[in-house]
Design brief:
Elements (H helix, E strand, L loop, with lengths): L1 E7 L16 H20 L9 E3 L1 E2 L5 E2 L7 E6 L6 E2 L4 E3 L9 E3 L6 H4 L1 H4 L21 H11 L1 E4 L2 E5 L15 E2 H13 L6 H14 L4 E2 L2 E2 L8 E7 L4 E7 L11 H18 L8 H15 L29 H17 L6 H23 E3 H8 L23 H6 L5 E3 L2 E3 L2 E3 L2 E2 H9 L5 H13 L1 H4 L8 E2 L4 H8 L20 H10 L3 H14 L9 E2 L5 E2 L8 H15 L29
Antiparallel strand pairs: 1-5, 2-8, 3-4, 5-6, 7-8, 9-10, 11-14, 12-13, 14-15, 16-17, 18-19, 20-21, 22-23
Helix pairs in contact: 4-19, 5-7, 5-19, 6-7, 7-9, 8-9, 8-10, 9-10, 9-13, 13-17, 17-18, 17-19, 18-19
Length: about 600
């Protein structure tokens, strides 16, 4: 079965911007056809053919039909024979409707092209993005209306200004730290405010500045001082009885369950800063000296020299959304994908003045090395799984195939049944003699949005989700990790964590907030029907159940045993998903286009290698 063609159009480079005025008639027709087809996709899905035949009569020097002769647009298709999709030429079929006049027809199919050049394809909103629409919640009002209302109830004020949102507004249980503003939790909240018709940019700007201010605090846990660039995991507003005024109180991991600093907070902060800038076209915030310094502190923390032999970041367990012991120590895919995403966002926002030029050069080198490492060593499909199964061990040379000395017997049995012939994914972790074959949704979706995944890999990830829908989506989207740790493995890896029992919380629980990531990835890869199907599942229960934090069970049927109700990012995850599916141009706020300037590394022998 042939895969979708890829439509490549220049991206963010201002010198390469494509406008309808400078396209050839053939290109203009193609652009109009795809844009029109997208409207049908949003309304009807892919159940019927949506792309009419496009006449192309340009031929290359070998007499083969091509769709464009000036190099601006390339049509190609990808096939996946059980391994990574391999891109080739677009499917060309004879056109007999013109009496056999020598012309051929190139048939366009749903493809990753939709996400690669959204600015040209998705300018016309499909439906509204305001405070209506969506399914009813049982009380006669729409879920969208209720979601916006619940979001407004979660706002946190500091000296009269909104600076964030509470993690949850559930009054039925112990507060714990759910009354704080979490950096990662606020991201979908901020995106919802940016994507709505009358964009609410002030709260996002205030949040970015307040968290930046907190970054400058001395961060101390016991007798150890954290790095200067560490961003807080969360903060809250308290009343100082001595000074008789409101003050902010930040947590840098010192009060967290595992006392682990949040590695992902700084990355999410940079990503949200880029989203704010993309939405408002206002560079004055990112160009502020203190904002430039804040970005540099975060990046210097990650790009500092050490003993690393890999371009990936070494992390402790519990340093990200999975903030409890779950065996993700080492080089987890979620952190690596966020790291790559933040590097590319910072690359767009950093000014070259002073030491900025040197930092940009370091970023470019790390992006190239990191993309190569993840695309080659973290990728798993049927073919690669078979290769690992046949690995030889104890290879000592520069020509070793099993570079990490992974023992084939360590491959868990479930992987062989889980891996379909069509599809693939980035595994959870790669380190010496260790591969974590678990599926983690956040890392895979972020890899798609940041273009860490190649177009072929992005397509394969979505293929996997379709092939394993019952496992990864179930009755309530979406599994944060798959499969769950059970029995002896659960006891050893989690330390008998009572909250992370099998198919609960981070151990195979289903998290509605992840809906926005799936929706963004689905639109970017030209597969919005996947997002629509997941949204329909969410709309059946989420509001009626009181917007819980997570669901338990193999299929996500039951509200989580310790899940908070009216969890803010469950609410805004749904809002962002709806705002993007109704108006796909909103994807531009959170998605990057492929960077053609990322050099393909040349594999050479080590400088220390001698004959």
């Amino acid at each position: 079965m042939s895969r979708a063609p890829i439509l490549e159009i220049p991206g963010d480079d201002p010198e390469q911007k494509t406008s309808p005025d400078n396209l050839t008639p053939t290109e203009t027709e193609i652009m109009e056809t795809v844009a029109e087809a997208w409207k049908h996709v949003i309304r009807d899905g892919f159940s019927t053919p949506i792309f009419p035949d496009i006449q192309t009569n340009a031929e290359d020097k070998n007499g083969k039909t091509v769709d464009n002769v000036n190099g601006k647009t390339t049509l190609q298709s990808c096939s996946n024979g059980g391994g990574p999709a391999i891109c080739g030429d677009s499917e060309v079929v004879p056109n007999n409707s013109n009496g056999g006049g020598g012309k051929t027809t190139s048939v366009l199919k749903p493809s990753p092209s939709v996400g690669i050049s959204l600015e040209n394809l998705l300018e016309v909103p499909i439906g509204g993005s305001g405070k209506n629409g969506g399914a009813e919640n049982g009380s006669g009002t729409s879920m969208m209306d209720e979601a916006w209302e619940q979001l407004s109830r979660s706002y946190v004020y500091f000296k009269g200004q909104r600076v964030g949102t509470l993690a949850a507004i559930d009054t039925g249980g112990e507060t714990l730290n759910y009354n704080q503003v979490f950096v990662r939790d606020f991201v979908p909240c901020g995106l919802a405010c940016l994507m709505k018709t009358d964009a609410d940019v002030d709260i996002v700007k205030n949040f970015l500045l307040k968290t930046l201010h907190l970054q400058g605090w001395e961060k101390r846990i016991d007798n150890f001082t954290l790095g200067e660039g560490v961003m807080p995991a969360s903060f809250k507003v308290i009343q100082d009885p001595n000074r008789q005024k409101e003050v902010l109180q930040a947590d840098f991991g010192g009060t967290a369950i595992g006392r682990v600093a949040p590695v992902d907070s700084g990355f999410w902060w940079i990503i949200l800063l880029r989203s704010y800038t993309k939405c408002t076209h206002d560079y004055s915030l990112s160009e502020l000296p203190e904002v430039q310094r804040g970005m540099k502190l975060i990046l210097n923390l990650c790009l500092s020299d050490g003993f690393d032999t890999f371009p990936t970041l070494l992390c402790a367990d519990g340093c990200s959304m999975i903030d409890r012991r779950m065996g993700i120590y080492g080089y987890p895919i979620e952190i690596q994908a966020l790291f790559f995403f933040a590097l590319r966002c910072a690359r767009q926002l950093l000014k070259p003045e002073h030491d900025g030029k040197e930092l940009i050069e370091r970023i470019d080198k790390r992006i190239t090395a990191l993309s190569y490492h993840i695309q080659n060593y973290y990728w798993l499909d049927f073919t690669q799984l078979n290769n690992i199964y046949r690995y030889k061990t104890e290879e000592y040379s520069h020509t070793a195939v099993n570079k990490f000395n992974v023992i084939p017997e360590s491959i868990p049995d479930w992987v062989f049944e889980f891996m379909p012939l069509r599809g693939g994914y980035f595994i959870g972790n790669v380190s010496p003699a260790r591969m974590d074959f678990r599926w983690f949704l956040v890392g895979n979706c972020i890899a798609i949005l940041s273009c860490l995944a190649t177009p072929a890999q992005a397509t394969a990830v979505m293929d996997l989700i379709e092939e394993r829908w019952a496992d990864l989506i179930g009755e309530m989207p979406l599994k944060i990790a798959y499969p769950a740790l059970e029995g002896h493995q659960w006891r050893i890896v989690t330390g008998c964590d009572p909250k992370n029992t099998r198919w609960s919380y981070h151990n195979g629980g289903s998290w509605p907030v992840l809906l926005w990531l799936l929706t963004a990835a689905s639109i970017k890869t030209g597969r919005p029907q996947i997002a629509k199907r997941a949204i329909e599942l969410v709309e059946q229960r989420l509001a009626k159940d009181g917007w819980p934090e997570y669901y338990d069970g193999i299929t996500g049927r039951y509200i989580g045993k310790q899940a908070r109700k009216y969890q803010t990012w469950s609410i805004t995850g749904y809002l962002v998903a709806k705002l993007m599916i109704e108006n796909p141009s909103n994807l531009l706020i959170i998605s990057l286009e492929e960077d053609k300037k990322i050099a393909k590394p040349k594999l050479t022998r080590s400088a220390s290698w001698t004959c």
